[in-house]
Amino acid sequence: MPLADKPYTPLVVMGVQGCGKSTAGQAVAARLGLPFLDGDDLHSVSNKQKMASGHPLTDADREPWLRAIGRELAAGLQRGTATVIACSSLKRQYRDLIRSYAPETQFIHLDGSRELIAERLTQRDHEYMPPTLLDSQFATLEPLGEDEAGIRLDISLSLDEIAAAAAEAFAPAGH
Questions:
Q1: Which of 15, 115, 126, 129 has the smallest C-beta neighbourhood within 10 Å, fewest atoms?
Q2: Among 23, 169, 39, 49, which residue's Cα sits nearest to residue 94?
Q3: Is the pTM above the cut of 0.90?
């Protein structure tokens, strides 16, 4: 039976910009045999323009985007498969909103120091997320709570180690 036919739950790879959400999300999805979606693709044009101009999004800006993330996760379940989505999910209320659409959703919080992430940001060119927004991302971040379904993984792990840890944590019982 292919992995995607097994009863996985939807997964959101979360964290601040530059922590490796998209790259790790793709690796986790590939390891589990699940579809991957980059949550950035669901941002509105106005959100992308706002971020590109160096302005952080407000909760009101994020709400329609988070609802779209939740709807995508729920739609995957309706199709019979879990989806892995990269989405910052910086605040608990954001994660709660996502879970209001797909309550089974679990989170992989990619955690790392501001210094390491700032260094990584110097090595990438993002379409609309300038490095100047990193401080606002850390100021907004509410780490995954111990009572929330999910795991925290250190971004200093290799991509293979992150994917393996996620696969081990989220493999259905008996697999």
A1: 115
A2: 39
A3: no
